[in-house]
Structures are given as C-alpha cells and as structure tokens.
Amino acid sequence: MNTQQHRPRIAPSPTGYLHLGHAYSVWLTQALAKAMGLEVILRIENIDHTRCKPEYVAAIPEDLATLGFTSTDPIWHQADRFEVYQDALHQLSDFLYPCTCTRADLQDYTSDVYPGLCRHKTMADITPDSPPYALRLNMAKAIQHLKEKGQWPLAFHDAKKGEVPAEPEMHGDVVLARKEFKTSYHLSVVVDDAAQNITHIIRGADLYDMTHIHRLLQALLDLPTPQYIHHGLIAEDGNEKLSKSKASMPLHTLIQNGLDLAPLKAVFDDVQKIQNEPAEAFLKALPTEIAAPLYFKEFA
Predict the structure, then answer these.
(1) Coil, helix or strand for 267?
(2) What is the DSSP track for 86-138?
(3) CATH number of the domain that residue 203 is part of
(4) What distance in Å separates the CA atoms of residue 234 and residue 261, rounded to the nearest whole number?
(5) Are 24 and 203 contacting, i.e. CB atoms less than 8 angstroms apart?
(6) 260 falls within a domain
(7) Which of 203, 160, 159 is nearest to 185 (CA)?
(8) Is residue 31 a part of any domain in this protein?
C-alpha cells in the first residue's frame, strides 16, 4: 500500500445487504474523489459479530462491482484487527474506566449523556464474577490532559461548514470498548483511518456529530486528522435511513426485479450537480413506485 497517497474510503458495515442509500453514497464518494484526483479504497467494518453475517460480508465486493467500484488495494476487515485496537486502548488506559451499568440502571435518567455512575471505578474493581462491562472514556479527564499539553481547543474541517470547533464533551463519557467486542466504532475507525492514510472522509450527515469524538481520539492517540465531507441522506417516511419500502430492498433484489442502474449512475457524471448534492436528480431517475416514499434529508 502506498502510504503517501491521499485517499478516501468506502467502509460499509455488513449488518445487511447494500441498498439504494448505499448506492447513492458510493457513487457520490467516487465522483467527489475523481474530481479531487483521489483513489477510493474499501474497508469492511465488521466488529459486531452479533450482527455482521458472513453472507453480508461476501456480498459487499460483488454488490460494489455492480455499482462500478472495485478496490485495487487489499480489503481490510476490522474483525482481523482486534489486537491493534487493544494497543490503542492501552494507550488510552489512563482515561478509561469500567462501566457495569445496565439499561435498567440508566432508565430514570432523561439525558442521552451518561451520568457517570461508574466514573469512580478502576479495572481493579473488576473480578471474574463481575457483570459484563464497557470501557468508557472519562471525557473531562481526557480534555484536561489535552489542555495541560497545550493541545486544546481542537477543530476539524468540514467541506460545507468550514473550520468546526470540536465539542466532544457534548457526548459525555462515550463507550470505547465492550467486554464482548473489545473495541467500538469510534476507536476502530480512527485507528484504521490513520493506518490506511485516509486523508478525506466522505460519509453521511448522520455521522457528523461523531466527528467531534473522533477528533478527540485523534489528538489523544497522536494521529492525523483527515478532511471531512458529510453528505445528505436518502430518507423515507421521516426516518433518517431507508427501512421499510421497496427502496430498502437489497440492491441485487432490485436489479433482479428490473431496476436499471445506468440512469442512476449517470446522475453523478455532472461535476456541478455533484458539488450541490445530486440527490433530487437521483430520486427523479428512480421508478415512481420506488421513489414515491423517498425524500432527500439535506445536511443542514
């Protein structure tokens, strides 16, 4: 792998088959990357063994090839990299604590931010008889550490919003690993983006808020910060993601049922439209019976 090459990535999680929402994101990523002269690589984010099934993993390269995408680099599978994530957790150990709280323990708290019930605990409190635990990041302690090193405040660059002050504290003490998974989405993507020299992250706006956490982890682990491009979502019936109708069917099923991908893919050939989000043109190119319940949820 050429570690000097600037690159974005496509990184699906195989918790189901790819659908039209994935197609939109893949084509947009390819088009933006082409406009910037960048090569896109593929990574499969399969850390959740309870939801990521082998048949979903196997289908990803085939479905992406149907969309016109192939990766010239070896495909990384996050399920093969738990030792690497353990090393990162070790680097963060001064800021982590075990949390044994269950949903029942937290049901009386109205805020989504964890109330810190286990913040006083250390790994010395964990015994073989302890209930399952998560490793949480002590957010206040982590931020104070960066302040003392002169590395606070933090910021990241988003293509639409410009320079954005990082505010990871709004998420509270986030979970970075669980006993059964040994990592988390936040930790694994930050570690792997750096390891693969991902310089441009193109992803859905539903992940925008997560960028604040990722910027903090990059600082704590002394990793580079990519540029970010967050795009709007193809949504359905008020939901942020496709879920119920024909539009949420697997891509291969839609194709078997006669969907022609050519007019959809052609939408992304116009660079000017791409820069202004081609979602409306994408929806118009769909057959009416598929497009009817859909709308474009723009990135505000």
Answers:
(1) helix
(2) HHHHHHTGGGEEEE---HHHHTT--SSS---TTTT--GGG--TTSPP-EEEE-
(3) 3.40.50.620
(4) 16
(5) no
(6) yes
(7) 203
(8) yes
Domain assignment present for 208? yes
Structural domains in the chain (count): 1
Cα radius of gyration (the chain): 20
C-alpha–C-alpha distance, residues 27 and 239, integer Å: 22
Picking from 147, 119, 145, the residue whose alpha carbon sits closest to that of residue 134 is 119
Give the residue among 243, 187, 192, 260 at the shortest CA–CA distance from 217. Answer: 187
Q: Tokens at residue 178, please?
A: 């669980």
The answer on pLDDT for 78 being more than 50 is yes
Torsion of CA 291, 68, 21, 75, to 10 degrees: 170
In tens, the pLDDT along 93-117 reads 999 999 999 999 999 999 999 999 9
Domain assignment present for 103: no
Say which residues have a Cβ less than 8 Å from residue 268's Cβ, sequence separation at least 6. Answer: 27, 28, 30, 31, 274, 278
DSSP element (H, E) containing 162? strand 162-165
Query: How far is residue 153 CA from its own chain's centroid?
Result: 23
CA-to-CA separations, 9 to 17, 38, 69, 192, 213, in angstroms, rounded:
19, 10, 12, 11, 19
Q: Which two tokens stand for residue 63?
A: 């479905």
Domain residues for the domain of 251 are 9-82+185-297
Q: What angle, 0 to 180 degrees and rounded to 10, lies between the N-to-C axes of helices 185-195 and 210-220? A: 60
Residue-level pLDDT at 90:
98
Average pLDDT, the chain: 92
Q: List pLDDT tens digits, range 126-141.
A: 999 999 999 999 999 9
CB of 144 within 8 A of CB of 85? Answer: no
Mean pLDDT of 250-266: 94
pLDDT digits (tens, 9 = 90+) for 184-230: 999 999 999 999 999 999 999 999 999 999 999 999 999 999 999 99
